[in-house]
């Protein structure tokens, strides 16, 4: 399938070129790289498509188009071309996320055609960690096991609801969201501190990973324990565990207004490397 502007849907045969494109900026592109490796660009596993823009027969830019629209290796011109292609195909994504200038250009090209967004976050610091930690890691933080899921799941729901503003269980989504929590635990990507009664005190997960980088999400401290340093020591433990056991660079992005979280990450050793934007419906 192709269109004006040299855009077509990518398939399995395009995977090497797509991964090479991701490798041009492997930390920023970790989500797309992870999705390419785990799905082989098969739409059945993507739950959507990956679009590529070709110049002189070579893949020059791409975008992941499923629940999340994510640009890969794009210039502002590329995302405007993808936006025009998207306008003909209709909205599929519930979230746009990526480097702020690219999401802004895509959003501008849409010119309101996809309707009013529920929330727009235009300046989210993207941060990277290469270690070692600047503070002592919390020795109580460990990998979650399948026996922990019953305690972990409510904490994940609470975090998601705080962050996104809508519970992941709305509209019958509880089963799917719980399956995602179980998947992360099974991969060894869920980290938490549990009290003596098995309740979650602090948690974080790896959302996606490649041979080059991993992205952390879902950082949460139980409300009655906030302000006691659990997040700083906990994130030091997570960052060290991830960089030594999963990928050499640990990344995340955070809301610019969340001064407390940004201070925690900076204390641990995360450094701002850019700005992301997120638009949600």
UniProtKB/TrEMBL annotation:
Pfam family, one: Acetyltransf_1
Limits of the N-acetyltransferase domain: 139-281
Domain of life: Bacteria
Classification via PANTHER family: GCN5-RELATED N-ACETYLTRANSFERASE, N-ACETYLTRANSFERASE
Protein name, as recorded: N-acetyltransferase GCN5
Annotated source species: Nocardioides daphniae
């Amino acid at each position: 399938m192709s269109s004006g502007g040299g855009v077509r849907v990518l398939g399995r045969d395009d995977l090497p070129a797509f991964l090479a494109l991701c490798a041009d900026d492997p930390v920023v592109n970790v989500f797309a790289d992870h999705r390419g490796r785990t799905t082989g660009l098969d739409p059945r596993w993507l739950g959507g498509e990956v679009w590529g823009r070709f110049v002189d027969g070579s893949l020059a830019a791409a975008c992941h188009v499923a629940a999340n629209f994510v640009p890969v290796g794009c210039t502002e011109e590329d995302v405007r071309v993808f936006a025009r292609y998207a306008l003909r195909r209709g909205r599929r994504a519930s979230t746009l996320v990526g480097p702020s200038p690219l999401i802004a250009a895509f959003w501008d090209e849409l010119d309101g055609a996809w309707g009013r967004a529920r929330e727009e976050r235009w300046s989210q610091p993207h941060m990277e960690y290469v270690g070692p930690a600047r503070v002592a890691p919390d020795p109580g933080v460990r990998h979650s096991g399948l026996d922990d899921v019953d305690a972990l799941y409510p904490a994940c729901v609470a975090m998601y609801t705080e962050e996104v503003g809508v519970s992941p269980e709305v509209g019958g989504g509880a089963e799917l969201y719980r399956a995602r929590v179980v998947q992360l635990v099974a991969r060894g990507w869920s980290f938490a501190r549990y009290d003596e009664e098995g309740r979650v005190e602090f948690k974080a997960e790896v959302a996606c990973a490649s041979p080059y980088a991993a992205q952390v999400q879902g950082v949460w401290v139980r409300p009655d324990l906030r302000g006691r340093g659990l997040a700083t020591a906990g994130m030091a433990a997570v960052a060290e565990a991830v960089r030594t056991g999963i990928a050499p660079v640990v990344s995340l992005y955070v809301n610019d207004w969340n001064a407390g979280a940004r201070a925690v990450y900076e204390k641990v050793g995360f450094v701002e490397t850019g700005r992301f934007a997120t638009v949600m419906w």
